[in-house]
Amino acid sequence: MLFLKRNSTLIKEGFGKYGFAINYLKSNKSYATKSTNADKNIVFIDGVRTPFLQSGTTYKDLIAYDLATHSLAALQRKIKFPKEIVEYVVYGTVMQEVRTSNIAREAVLAAGYNDRTPAHTITMACISSNQALTTGMGLIACGVYDVIIAGGVEFMSDIPIRHSRRMRSLMLQANKAKTVGQKLSLLSSIRPKDFLPDLPTVAEFSTNETMGHSSDRLATAFQVTRKEQDEYALRSHTLAAKAQRQGYLTDVVPYKVPNVNEVVNKDNGIRVSTMEQLGKLKPAFVKPYGTVTAANSSFLTDGASAALIMSEEKALQLGLTPKAYLRNFVYVSQDPVDQLLLGPSYAIPQVLQKAKLNVKDIGVWEVHEAFAGQILANLKALDSDWYAQNYLGKSSKVGIPDLNKWNAWGGSLSIGHPFAATGVRLATHTANRLIREDQQFGLIAACAAGGQGVGMIMERYPGAKV
């Protein structure tokens, strides 16, 4: 790929020219991590997900609750564990359905789990189910619980659209009005503009800028070309299609949508195109000169995921064979203006340091693809001495991972990105790839809104099977 031919001098020039960074900016098989702060081993038994579908397609008449319920029920059917062993459920969501504000609890009840199983819902943008996993790890490490389900759901086919602020205020006042006259007085004050809806946007509250705009500026700063982005997008779709065809995406559990004849059994956003076709698309955000297009960006997606994690001791008691150990993790945050999407370049070196590992020790990389430009910028950052010295506090660059081990089954650009469900998808793919590819360590990384990010280390469990 072309991006591997660029060096850190170009990154320095790009940052200086555009002012972004200145102004804002095969390993041993002993199966024992070099460093872990946990008093007990925490294991990843398995994970599942609904097929990830482009929003507005087959799932369009459902709600998030339906997908979340299916993921929890399907997880139990796949692993065949007694539902009563689950002591706690942590579930993520970003675009919240107001009728199921604690969707974790509602889905637990609907999926037939014990009504005495507590559940809570969390949000951390695109790393919400990563946070669900690590929250579960913390509860297990502290000895509060032994068996936890972590997951996430996103439903972009039906997002909450509100009345305007003034209309909401008038309606609340009218609800409290005691006389017909008071109500008529309030109604008479309504103006046509009050009927304009308050639409949610995929934009930063602090900057009012969409991620697409941020990705375009980041690609410019790191001198990532349109051709490089289209090449990476094509790579993602090609690898995902191959994995789908070879039957590697075993985390997908079919879903029979009510009133739909065919069972949904695969992701529907995977489309292998050509460089020529990709090159015809116009910029989606910065027009007319931007390089980020609909094809080299992740798309709005509906989907849910869930994973069973527990202490290793409990797993052995239950006769379950885990797929992987959940080892180290770290969360990072940085400037949300010009470093909004650089979470992986901050999280990767930190989590490697915590685990006393280096880039060459990692046999499986699963990194969230928000945009092709975002991925390539992070790779260039990892390969830059200048960036490492000025932003990571390191004397030399982290280094570029072996791209043969990087998102080998495709990623969010092709598989899809239901915001809060992606983290568990990354973890399940990591566990399954560690087994299929006979590797010891896997690293998960992702960026998220607010300039945040996550890095996680997983380790293959001895005797694990897909």
How is the topology of this model organized?
Layout: H1 8-18, H2 20-23, E1 42-49, E2 53-54, H3 64-79, E3 88-92, H4 103-110, E4 119-122, H5 128-141, E5 147-154, H6 165-176, H7 180-188, H8 211-221, H9 226-245, H10 275-279, E6 301-311, H11 312-318, E7 324-333, H12 343-355, E8 362-367, H13 372-382, H14 385-392, H15 412-415, H16 422-436, E9 441-448, E10 452-460
Parallel strand pairs: 3-4, 3-5, 8-9
Antiparallel strand pairs: 1-6, 1-7, 2-6, 5-6, 7-10, 9-10
Helix pairs in contact: 3-4, 5-16, 6-7, 8-13
Explain how this protein is built.
With 466 residues, this protein is α/β, with parallel strands linked by helices. It has 16 helices and 10 strands. Strands 1, 2, 3, 4, 5, 6, 7, 8, 9 and 10 form a 10-stranded mixed β-sheet that branches. Helix 3 crosses helix 4. The longest helix has 20 residues. The N terminus is likely disordered. Its main location: mitochondrion. Pathway: Lipid metabolism; fatty acid beta-oxidation. Belongs to the thiolase-like superfamily. Thiolase family.
Keywords:
single chain, 466 residues, alpha/beta, 10-stranded mixed beta sheet, 16 helices, 36% helix, globular, disordered N terminus
Q: Topology as H/E string?
A: HHEEHEHEHEHHHHHEHEHEHHHHEE
**Percentage of residues in helical conformation:** 25-40%
SS class: alpha/beta
Radius of gyration: 23 Å
Number of helices: 16
Number of strands: 10
